[in-house]
Amino acid sequence: MKNKKENLTGYLFILPAIILFFTFVLIPVIVMVCLGFTKYNLFSAPEWTGFSNFARAFTDGRLWTVTKNTIFLAFFSVILNIAVGLFLALLIANKKSPVFNYLVRLFYFFPMIVAPVYIAVIWSNILAADGGLLNYYIQKIGFDAVGWLTDRRVALKTIVGIEVWRLTGFAMLTFIAGIKNISKDYFEAASLDGAGVVQTAYYITIPQLTPTILLNLIMYVITELKTFDIPMLMTKGEPMDGTRTIAMYIYETAFQKQDMGYACAISLFFVIGIMILTCVQFITSNRWVHYD
Fold first, then answer.
1. Which residues are in the ABC transmembrane type-1 domain (predicted)?
2. Per-residue pLDDT tens for 149-158?
């Protein structure tokens, strides 16, 4: 009887989480899958169309364009976020100045707690082609103004830079925590063997941080593939779809073009792609992640 009461208490504690999961995750996913097989515009009853929405995705030129944009953005943002975060963590770990360490952590983590709207407004004013702060000083030293957000060759790279500046703080803090959990015996042994800073980092610190690297890799890949707010607020996907991501295209298809069925079909492909990529990361992690 006592065990039943304890079990009931446990179930009651997790009941709110279960309700939220069913309401905002499981049921919407089921509805999304069902609507993917229909023609639906939010104002009329869904009409069954079979696999036509899914077939349409393979011949949609714009979808392939935004997919390439998203892959480019995710690939470089993930690599740079992890690399810069790891570098900063190693820098802080080897610096004995509390003031320096505090200022670096503050400078790089602060953007994470600032709303993307404010970040977009600030950077839009700094990077504006006409009257922007950065272009003002570029022209002052004799160079032509750069279309940071209006030149198709540059705009997506600019978004990558802003994403790295905005999100590096998470990687930095997780790597700092990981370094603090490494046994000091390893570093003492390396010091006795005459290992330098670079050798210690390469042979001891980084191998011991591989579980943290895996965590950051999974988190950043999912985050960057879903990127929506910064490019939406700063460029609205322009110029010529040069900064439009899959999430932005889904939003446009669903709510601006009122083609909810096709948007759900794209979303299903998108979710499956992220799930496959995450599974691949977990499966291949056995080859390079060390838990000792």
1. 67-281
2. 999 999 999 9
